[in-house]
Design a protein that fits this description.
By secondary structure, the chain is α+β, with helices and mostly antiparallel strands. The protein is 42% helix and 23% strand. It is built from seven helices and eleven strands. It has helices at 3-37, 51-63, 123-130, 184-194, 209-215, 223-242, 247-271; strands spanning 40-44, 49-50, 70-83, 89-98, 118-122, 139-142, 145-153, 159-163, 170-171, 173-176, 199-202. The strands form two sheets. The protein has a six-stranded mixed β-barrel. A two-stranded antiparallel sheet has the order 2-9. The radius of gyration is 24 Å and the shape is flat. The protein starts with a helix and ends in a 10-residue tail after the last helix.
Length: 281
């Protein structure tokens, strides 16, 4: 083989490996983004639910044989948190929730035992407060209360997650577990109607096949239903883009962007390995 042929073979191998790496990273980003669409996200549009309402709703669901598991939550931006001796302080986004943290799209969860006095914090906040990412067991102070750090989140780096059991607390978001054999949209609608809540679902599952099955008309010749489905999709996209994002939701947008970019770059690099042949006249 000539030097030119060797050089060309090396470049093809480099492009191929780069393409495989891009597609692999895109797949990992897509997997991370999938955490938030595992459950159903609901935005309460007019007024939040109080802690007392959440407790009543939870008691009702627990009393039912087919009760739905859910968590109410709200994120507050740029709140001041401190370590126990006051030598370290940080500005963090604080996510307060009522229910089980397992329904939140987090890489770690708070243990059920003694959850009211525990919290999770991001790596950046851990470094600012304690000078290390290994902050488990340290005490965090927030609004006059002390919480024991039970785990450190890789992302979001400036997030603090804690439970708020105050009956007067307000929660503008709900995350509910999907029901088997029922569409996500139908589950969300019935849950909201059952408690007289004014809200709508944020469709983070918009790229999933189940979303398109849910919108599909009974007959493709039903053009009125097709038009309604298209308008519904447009409305879902506008709502998803216009809604103020929490730290967790921003990660979804970032991961989806990385996934799309990675797949596009990977396929372009693979396509370069198969140059088009010129047609002889």
């Amino acid at each position: 083989m000539s030097r030119g042929e060797i050089r060309a073979a090396v470049m093809r191998a480099v492009f191929f490996l780069a393409a495989c790496l891009c597609i692999l990273l895109a797949g990992l980003a897509l997997q991370d983004a999938g955490r938030i669409r595992q459950n159903i996200s609901i935005l309460l549009e007019n007024s939040p639910v109080t802690g007392a309402q959440v407790d009543a709703m939870r008691n009702t669901e627990q009393a039912r044989e087919d009760g739905i598991d859910f968590v109410a939550w709200q994120e507050y931006k740029n709140k001041r948190v401190m370590n126990v001796d006051g030598t370290g302080a940080a500005s963090a986004n604080v996510l307060e929730f009522s229910g089980s943290s397992e329904l939140l799209a987090l890489e770690r969860h708070l243990p059920q035992e003694d959850v009211a006095k525990s919290c999770l914090i991001g790596e950046r906040t851990a470094e600012e407060l304690y000078g290390s990412r290994s902050a488990r067991g340290n005490i965090l102070c927030y609004e006059g209360r002390e919480y024991t750090v039970q785990g450190v989140l890789r992302e979001p780096g400036n997030l603090v997650v804690l439970q708020n059991d105050d009956e007067n607390a307000g929660f503008g978001r709900l995350t509910i577990a999907p029901e088997e054999g029922r569409s996500r949209g139908r589950t969300a609608e019935q849950f909201l109607a059952g408690y007289g809540l004014d809200g709508r679902q944020l469709r983070y599952d918009m790229l999933a096949l189940s979303y398109f099955v849910e919108l599909a008309p009974g007959k493709w010749s039903d053009f009125a239903q097709v038009k309604q489905s298209v308008l519904k999709m447009q409305d879902d996209i506008v709502c998803l883009l216009a809604t103020e994002k929490s730290s967790i939701e921003l990660l979804w947008f970032r991961d989806m962007g990385l996934a799309v970019t990675g797949f596009l770059v990977g396929f372009v690099l693979l396509w370069r390995q198969f140059p088009t042949r010129q047609i002889k006249k």
